[in-house]
Amino acid sequence: xxxxxxxxxxxxxxxxxxxxxxxxxxxxxxxxxxxxxxxxxxxxxxxxxxxxxxxxxxxxxxxxxxxxxxxxxxxxxxxxxxxxxxxxxxxxxxxxxxxxxxxxxxxxxxxxxxxxxxxxxxxxxxxxxxxxxxxxxxxxxxxx
Length: 144
Fold this sequence. Notes:
Layout: E1 9-13, H1 30-47, E2 57-67, E3 76-86, E4 90-101, E5 104-119, E6 124-125, H2 130-139
């Protein structure tokens, strides 16, 4: 089994030719973009954020990525996303990237971002909006 039940959100990623470096595999920096795509899809599906930056949003405070296996052009990958911690102003999103071969999923990278709820107009961190928190708690089977 490729992933546990705490990673219920799945985002397919298309590997573009431009993502490939001189060594013939996906350049490590592209995983930041892949995780960003997964994060946006997670927010669309779970929180239903309206992306009105004049009100409230999120910023990335910290990122970690572990590279396990190379990914090449033509590979099919998916990113599983899970909220592993909900604080007052910040929360953690975990990511697991899998390459799909013959209906088997092989872990190629994993990572985490610390996300901070943010008021763009005032330029400061805010409490996670209660509707977001409730939506993430409802979606996730167990918040650590």
